[in-house]
């Protein structure tokens, strides 16, 4: 009986785990295009993304976001559409 309860608990964690994390470029595009804030700062943008389960770090003038091992640069775009512009960072090396 106890083993059955543990198996059900593990299954429940596996089912709900992927639903709670945003990890695709499509999810990121949808999130940043759903709002506009011409005065959003780099720190505010990073906080907003982290609160939506993205791996985001504020850098000098932009936000660094990692998705599936790829680094993206997000620059707050002021009066432009959405919250920021996304560009792919070249690999280091």
Number of distinct beta strands: 4
Give the helix proportion (percent range): 25-40%
Secondary-structure-based class equals: alpha+beta
Give a quick account of the main beta sheet: strands, pairing sense, barrel closure: 4 strands, antiparallel
Element order: H for helix, E for strand: HHHEEEE
Q: Please tell me how large the radius of gyration is.
A: 17 Å
Bin the strand percentage. 15-25%
Mean pLDDT: 83
Specify the oligomeric state: single chain
Shape: globular
Poorly predicted parts:
17-21
Q: Number of DSSP helices?
A: 3
* Spatial ordering of strands, largest sheet: 1-2-3-4
Q: End-to-end span in angstroms? A: 54 Å
Question: Can you describe what's shown?
Answer:
- This protein has 93 residues and is an alpha+beta fold.
- It has a domain of 54 residues.
- Helices cover 35% and strands 23% of the residues.
- It has a 4-stranded antiparallel beta sheet with strand order 1-2-3-4.
- The protein starts with a helix and ends in a 5-residue tail after the last strand.
- About 5% of the residues have low confidence.
Nutshell version of this structure?
The protein has helices at residues 2-16, 25-33, 42-50; strands at 55-58, 63-67, 70-76, 84-88.
What's the layout of helices and strands?
Elements: H1 2-16, H2 25-33, H3 42-50, E1 55-58, E2 63-67, E3 70-76, E4 84-88
């Amino acid at each position: 009986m106890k083993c059955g309860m543990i198996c059900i608990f593990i299954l429940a964690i596996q089912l709900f785990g992927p639903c709670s994390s945003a990890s695709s470029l499509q999810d990121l595009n949808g999130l940043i295009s759903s709002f506009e804030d011409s005065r959003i700062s780099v720190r505010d943008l990073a906080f907003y993304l982290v609160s939506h389960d993205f791996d985001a770090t504020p850098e000098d003038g932009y936000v660094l976001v990692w998705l599936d091992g790829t680094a993206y640069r997000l620059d707050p775009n002021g009066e432009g559409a959405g919250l920021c512009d996304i560009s792919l960072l070249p690999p280091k090396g």
